[in-house]
Amino acid sequence: MSEDELLLGYFDTRTRALATAAIGASLATLLLRSGGAGGVAVFVASAIALAGLAAIVGEGTDQLSRRLGPRATGVLQSGLGNLPEFFIGIFALRAGLTDVVRAALVGSILANTLLVLGLAFVAGGLRHGRQRFGAEQTRLISTLLVLSAAAIAVPTIATAPGGPAQGHAVELSVVVSLVLLAVFAASLPFAVGGADSGRAESPVGQAAGWNPPAAQAWPGSLAVAVLLVAGVAAAVVSDWFVDALQPAMTSLGMSQSFAGLVVVAIAGNAVENVVGVRAMLADRADLAISVILNSSLQVALALAPVLVLASLVMGGATLTLVVSPLLVAALALTAVLAAVVVVDGESTWLEGVALIGLYVILAASVWWGPPIG
User: Fold this and answer.
1) 373 within some domain
2) Domain ranges, residue 55
């Protein structure tokens, strides 16, 4: 057997299909850009390519997860799954689309906490009925989600006309960003190891209802190589995505808030969509909760602060944590509803419907607004 055949033997049919879709959509985006196609066509092709690349990242981290527990796997998958959002944020800031970036950061938190978690609860609940997960872990995540909402609300209120920090949005945003990064660093050991919650977590791949894939496990070096290649490709495609974003949204008459809060956020959350729903369908509730909610936390506690600090040294538009009152209210409602839903360590499909319902309401509220361009 040749080396190429041996390498392909590690990839099952689904992984090959994902790779084919990601490569095909990336090449289609390149051809459309080279041929001078309209912004909408390039935007759609690049969004599909990003989703495919994000799914490949999910496959790579899933392979690494065979050596880790559910919590560590969730943190790793969430971090790597946010790579497209990081690259989109960097390129959008360079293009001066600060409103889109702010809305996308909030939208990522809303999409993960409401839409993706809701879909996972519905899918898992309809198949398995009531599902249970570690309540201690979810209580910690709920606490940090409330902190995340406060970290956005305080700069917005304090810098409003008549506020004590009026005219100092940048300085206050830097202070808040440094605090959030410190909290994120402090939360990592607990997120990975956790305290004894009184219930044994199933090893990855051995939870009830989970059947390991037929394909053999990847070597560690192959998983790392796939992650590196997919990460570099995601950076390139993210640049194309942002280039096409403004003309596409102008053609569609879409507001900046809707573009960031919904379109960009969903495009960047493909990993959480796929991994979270699959885990709940396999009755791996601990892994699903870890992947989905850790992604929200990493956006709030790490990605947003990093983009704020990066904007100071990149030149061009400066990003702050000051958002509209609607987005502050959206974050607060999301944090409260998520805390109420997960605090008991159980989920049902009806709770998932409630989460999705709030997301649809919030998305509809930003449809009418000033368009891009």
Assistant:
1) no
2) 3-365
Phi and psi at 129, nearest 5°, equal 80, -145
d(CA 118, CA 48): 22
- Phi/psi for 216 (5° steps) reads -75, 160
Residue 131, SS3 per DSSP? strand
Which pLDDT tens digit goes with each residue over 153-203? 999 999 999 889 988 999 999 999 999 999 988 887 776 665 444 343 433
Which among 11, 53, 1 has a CA at the least distance from the CA of 222? 11
How many structural domains comprise the chain? 1
Q: What is the CATH number of the domain that holds 124?
A: 1.20.1420.30
Q: Does the pLDDT of residue 215 top 60, yes or no?
A: no
Query: C-alpha 27: how far from its chain's center?
Result: 24
Asked whether residue 282 is assigned to any structural domain, the reply reads yes
> And the tokens for 15?
């992984």
Angle at 265 between CA 362 and CA 94, to 5 degrees: 120
Query: Of 270, 244, 311, 264, whose CA–CA distance to 57 is shortest?
Result: 270
Question: Which residue, 240, 257, 231, 2, is CA-closest to 107?
Answer: 257
8 Å CB contact between 208 and 61: no
Token pair 């981290």: residue: 61
First vs last Cα of the chain: how many Å apart?
A: 56
